[in-house]
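Bit of a strange request maybe. I'm writing a small parser for structure token strings and I need a real example to test against, not something I typed by hand. Could someone generate the tokens for this chain?
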Amino acid sequence: MCYRSGSQGCIRRQIQVASRARWAASTPDVSEKPSKENESMIFDDRQFFHALHQEYEQHIRGFWRRYLSLKTLRRIRVLSYTPTTRPEVVPMDDFTLQEVFYAYQHPKSIETESEWIDWVFRLRQADRRHALEFVEDWSGFRIGIVGSVPWVVATVVGVTWTAKGGDAQTAFTVAGYILTVGTGELALLAIVSKIES
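Reply from user aminoacidic:
Good idea to test on real output. This should exercise your parser:
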């Protein structure tokens, strides 16, 4: 897994998967449980996408970016790299990448046992490694929510102040101040989101 985070380059996290058929061929007694070294090994598609989701949400994205960022995950791409080269995007058809993204978003709807695990093994090459890159982009929904909160609060304050017998000019001066502060906070959130990515 890879996430490009500005100055940090590509943050890499690893998930280990194994094909049951390959595991059975390499393990003399298939009935025995995986040993301590490989108990974190993933064998089926649901576990694979659940592990991807957990790694991204908990380790790559983190608490602050999950709740305060104005960006959201838009797609997942496949990267190819060697120990001495920068990661490059692997040209793949959009349908496959959309299937990967859908499976990532809805791991409970996966009905296959090892189709995605086998896909991972088909990507393997002797001289190259592969990673899934998580690509974020601005979220219109988040921007709309954060942008509308100061407007709604300013309007409620102005109308309430006036309804309780206060001076309308003072009420909407205060409402204008609230709107200015709220817009400034929105701009700061946008700057922080841009710096982090």
